[in-house]
Design brief:
six-stranded mixed β-sheet; alpha+beta; three-stranded antiparallel β-sheet; about 270 residues; 2 domains; single chain; elongated
């Protein structure tokens, strides 16, 4: 059900008392134990379209260069003319929710004085960042990972591509994090399913599928190998990490999948015996 919100300039100022956090594309306000308002930064309103950057794809671990990472963060109009984080993208999300059962998509648009400024999101109460499951036994950790794969598969089946799953430095340069939370029953919750992190398409898109898979594979390696940001590692560190897990069948298979650009979600599920 669409939950559009209409605010005045005064209402927007009064949101300060509900301030929760801030990311690279907007500020988040906790309205209650179920609802967040995300107000996008105004400096993101006008953006230059660059199709060459949009379609650039990293092919393998050997080709990854930290300086090229911004090409994986889409902050402009996509091929269908929908600006990520803009009104049309949020409207697409609300229409797709009926077929998505494992992930909470944006619930509505936020308008200030009649102009689009953000979106309404679900607040995931009683949850914690994904990286904290590293303290759990392997069996419980794998339980969360398997549920996460099912969640990502459902999104892909609905042509929703989350391209920002892997660990990254936070907006405030604190502990690197991913856009996955975990509930206390160990079920994962994919978040930031708006803004620059997710792309909504009507049909299958090979480029965005690849970006989603690269992000997912990076996240899984980071999680299982206890690495903060695998993309930032140099070749020597990567080779050492591969050697250190050569006797672990699951991790070795995951590294092989990471370096194979043709790996799809079904291949990843097989590695985890799903």
């Amino acid at each position: 059900m669409n939950r559009d919100v209409y605010l005045s300039s005064e209402d927007l100022k009064n949101l300060k008392k509900y301030y929760l956090s801030e990311g690279s594309d907007g500020k988040v306000y906790k309205i209650n134990n179920d609802t967040l308002y995300k107000i996008y930064h105004t400096e993101n309103e006008n953006v230059t379209i660059n199709n060459e950057e949009e379609t650039k794809v990293v092919k393998s671990i050997k080709d990854i260069n930290v300086k090229e990472l911004p090409s994986l963060t889409l902050n402009f109009i996509d091929k269908e003319g929908t600006r990520i984080g803009k009104e049309d993208a949020i409207l697409k999300a609300t229409s797709k929710q009926k077929n998505v059962h494992l992930t909470s998509l944006p619930m509505g648009c936020i308008y200030v004085n009649g102009h689009f400024r953000g979106c309404v999101l679900k607040y995931h109460n009683h949850s914690f960042p994904l990286y904290q499951i590293n303290m759990l036994p392997k069996k419980l950790k794998l339980k969360t990972v398997k549920y996460l794969l099912l969640e990502i598969e459902e999104l892909l089946n609905n042509n929703i591509y989350h391209i920002d799953l892997a660990n990254k430095p936070s907006f405030n340069d604190k502990k690197p994090h991913s856009n996955v939370l975990v509930k206390y029953n160990l079920y994962p919750e994919v978040i930031d399913i708006d803004g620059k992190s997710a792309v909504y398409r009507e049909t299958y898109d090979e480029q965005y599928y690849y970006k989603c898979m690269l992000s997912l594979k990076s996240l899984l390696l980071e999680l299982l190998c206890d690495v903060d940001d695998i993309i930032a590692l140099n070749d020597e560190d990567i080779e050492y990490l591969k050697y250190s897990v050569k006797d672990d069948e699951l991790k070795s298979n995951l590294f092989e999948a990471f370096e194979n650009e043709d790996t799809d979600i079904k291949d990843i599920k097989k590695i985890f015996k799903l």
